[in-house]
């Protein structure tokens, strides 16, 4: 039996279907680190962390944000159930920059444990959103 030559990537968030298309390669932010998937990959289930989900389609890389959830890998498909996700083209860079500044200020202002984790997660989300948007748009 021949190995598949592509993967069907489907990404779903609580808001609905974010992406469904054939791809050549996926790199996802696992909870324990990034992992790559090519057609014919061994089936697995992974917990997702926070970061950039990249995929290659017809030689071009595309990026999305991916914040927590699950990833099911099969030889011919990758199913992602993310708590939050966003296409690079949908990211408002100005808003993300403001969110980054707010989160950094909150982290500096917090003197104890209460509230720090929430501010830190907001900071990570903002940094990720900015990185994904800038890479996809060819910026720095």
| Helical stretch tally | 2
| Biggest sheet character | 7 strands, mixed
What percent of residues adopt helix (DSSP H or I)? 25-40%
* Cα end-to-end separation: 44 Å
Total E-strand runs: 7
Mean pLDDT: 90
Uncertain segments are none
Query: Hey, roughly how much beta strand do the residues contain?
Result: over 45%
Q: What are the secondary-structure elements, in order, as H or E? A: EEEEEEEHH
- Overall, the morphology is elongated
**Strand ordering within the main sheet:** 2-1-7-6-5-3-4
Secondary-structure-based class equals alpha+beta
- Computed over alpha carbons, the radius of gyration is 16 Å
List the defining traits of the structure above.
27% helix; 140 residues; elongated; seven-stranded mixed beta sheet; 2 helices; 47% strand
